[in-house]
Design goal:
InterPro entries: ArgE/DapE_CS (IPR001261), Bact_exopeptidase_dim_dom (IPR036264), PepT-like (IPR010162), Peptidase_M20 (IPR002933), Peptidase_M20_dimer (IPR011650). The protein has nine helices and 17 strands. With about 375 residues, it is an alpha+beta fold.
Length: about 375
């Protein structure tokens, strides 16, 4: 029932929308029209306005909110929420889809393709079209197309989850073979530590200075980075400081992140890291300015929960593996679960994401749409 040519054609069309994070207006307007044609009640929240007021990087782009659609069911089955985000990473302007004879779809090589997350969006749209065209029985269908997912899910963080009917969600936003789902994901803490020292001439009187770079280097040398246990990582990703080579540096800025599948472990690692920096700053006579933000919070969905069992039943019916795993990447689902919705993240045909080598295939897009269709109609 999935119309493969229609599905692929819509994917290629949507690739051409410029929809980098905070620039989702055009694609949101297009999707609003698509959802209305399918019979959805559609609303857009105020997340775009709130983000634009808060974030200088939003720039002059027209504010765009999270897009929500509701389609009343034909049965008494519990409602289901399907989601995929609207934004892409950079470079995402001027994208064009190129398809080879074997059905592989790439960009022209100078941008990302945007299969992350257009592959999820078109799968959801095609599945609903098939339901409508064939009068297939279904419960209430809700769709959420958030903005700003690529910036730690800043859009879905602002959703009013009290307005969502569904208690189960399927987020189409994962690499890997169709039939794979992520059922747990990490807490992610991002931090910036500004180490403050004291300037002095590096040749005449270095003893009068306090070298901020030295403080930072000594602190970093005491950290365990990479895997600190089997579910937690620590990374110093950026260092900057100093004015010129003949001045003892009075400032050094260190930025990084901590991820863990257990929230308390992420917080514990942060406290350990902070104590190391504080001890070194005090020992040298320097000081610190620290900012830390919990971008997403860890969750774990058991394989025995209905949201997973439904996924596995549908996969079996389609001849897919129906396997689950954890991921140390975040998604909108972190915020969904925190908002009270039991969700999992499913693979949808995105490969080598966040690079100009990104690709999908006709086969993957079709399987993803079949999965979405099965999730909607299962049990009806």
């Amino acid at each position: 029932m999935i119309q493969r040519s229609r599905l692929v054609s819509q994917f290629k069309k949507m690739v051409e929308f410029d929809s980098e994070t905070y620039q989702e207006r055009e694609i949101a307007d297009y999707l609003t029209g698509e959802l209305k044609q399918l019979g959805f009640e559609v609303r857009e929240d105020d997340a775009g306005h709130r983000l634009k007021e808060k974030l200088p990087e939003y720039g002059t782009a027209a504010p765009t909110g999270n897009l929500y659609g509701y389609l009343k069911g034909t049965t008494g089955s519990a409602p289901i929420l399907l989601s995929a985000h609207m934004d892409t990473v950079k470079p995402g302007k001027g994208k064009r889809a190129v398809q080879d004879a074997k059905g592989k779809i790439t960009s022209e090589g100078d941008t990302v393709l945007g299969a992350d997350d257009l592959s999820g969006i078109v799968a959801i749209l095609e599945a609903v079209r098939v339901v409508k065209e064939n009068n297939l029985p279904h419960g209430d269908i809700e769709v959420l197309f958030p903005v700003a997912e690529e910036n730690y899910g800043k859009g879905s963080q602002l959703i009013d989850y009290s307005k969502i009917r569904s208690k189960q969600a399927y987020v189409f936003d994962l690499s890997g073979e169709i039939g794979l789902a992520a059922t747990s994901a990490p807490t992610l803490l991002s931090f910036e530590i500004k180490v403050k020292g004291k300037n002095a001439h590096a040749g005449f009187c270095p003893q009068l200075g306090i070298n901020a770079i030295e403080i930072a280097a000594h602190a970093i040398s005491q950290l365990k980075q990479g895997w600190v246990d089997d579910e937690t990582t620590v990374n110093i990703g950026k260092i900057s400081g100093g004015k010129q080579t003949n001045i003892v540096s009075d400032e050094c800025v260190v930025s990084g992140e901590i991820r863990s599948l257990k929230d308390h472990k992420a917080l514990s690692e942060w406290n350990r890291l902070k104590e190391i920096f504080e001890g070194n700053a005090a020992g040298y006579g320097g000081s610190l300015e620290i900012t830390v933000e919990k971008q997403i919070e860890a969750y774990e969905i058991s394989d025995s929960e209905e949201v997973v069992e439904r996924f596995k039943r549908v996969c079996r019916s389609l001849g897919l593996k129906g396997s689950t795993q954890y991921t140390l990447g975040g998604s909108d689902n972190n915020h969904f679960v925190k908002g009270g919705i039991r969700g999992i993240v499913v693979s949808c045909g995105m490969n080598e994401v966040h690079t100009p080598n990104e690709f999908t295939t006709e086969d993957e897009l079709e399987k993803s749409a079949l999965l979405a269709l099965g999730l909607i109609t299962e049990g009806n």
